[in-house]
């Protein structure tokens, strides 16, 4: 990795040869991940050479929709975490609309969305005490054929259950929606009880100009260096004075404007609850070195978990190559607005939300119980869950992989949180 940072093609080539030899001996999860990492580093090395980089064909640009669709379906089928997230999200939403007559569910999971989640919620509404509501579902997705198939499946399921059900489709991505006209785009009518589900997509709203972020990091480093020099000078004069020397104030990182626009647009919809699932990782650092080490640790655990579910499956191989491999490449190769896989920790999301006047809603005992039961049903000892003050964490061993959390826009008469802005 150091050779890539310094731009040494010769040294990097020798390292890649070693990786290739090691990866060819055993076809384990770490070896498969290593090949993807090596490919990503090679791409990053040639990125500064614009003519060379442009001349290379990137296979991911030619993936057919059917291949992407199959990989996403496979991920939902074999991942212990995604179905756990869907179960927990559903329960949290159901609890907020127990007595509502007209319910609007907005699915912002886009490429992660899966009809299994909504078949399950149709069944839950069907058995609701007091009878089911009139249910309206808006799904955002870039694949129109996928939306057509989902609509046919869910409408058939609703008819079998004798539910009053409406399906509205929005073709697009979360980050490209017109937030100034969100109510109309999402087909939300006044008087509907709105609940929002968003799985593995919110981080796409964190894209910024990375050169600004790097300048910010350099500013922090300069301030820290100055503080240390002053502290050393004070220490030389009076050792006791270092104990009382004020620490250098650190400017708080700005919230990306796209996320701010989205959250304020969502607030205007007055949803009962927003439930989100996110990769719980530090993959949004402006410096490549920091992203690299965190990426290796995170995806090593994720590859290992999928291998434990189904080691020899072609479906697992497709997920690693088409979905996870592309995530890794985006984190390590891309910069600026092209880098959209900007995963952050739950604590960082809590800061973003509170500064936009969106408050944390504790997950209920029942929602957490259902999520834990679903995760345990896979029978994998390394699959663990951990309750955090802001949500539920899904782990592989000691490595945190995903977070599930719930939020609600602050009411106008609520006391503001004491969060620095």
Structural account:
Helices cover 52% and strands 15% of the residues. The protein is an alpha/beta fold. The chain folds into three domains: 2-56, no CATH class; 65-206 and 257-409, Rossmann fold (3-Layer(aba) Sandwich), CATH 3.40.50.150; 210-244. Residues 333-408 are annotated as: SAW. Residues 149-181 are annotated as: Leucine repeat II (LRII).
| Estimated structural class | alpha/beta
CATH class label of the largest domain: Alpha Beta
Order of helix and strand elements from N to C terminus:
HHHHHHEHEHEHEHHHEHHHEHEEE
**Number of strand segments:** 9
State the helical fraction. 40-55%
Strand content: 5-15%
Region (SAW): 333-408
Region (Leucine repeat II (LRII)): 149-181
Keywords: Transcription, Transcription regulation
Family: Belongs to the GRAS family.
Give a nutshell description of this structure.
With 421 residues, this protein is an alpha/beta fold. It has 3 domains: 2-56, no CATH class; 65-206 and 257-409, Rossmann fold; 210-244.
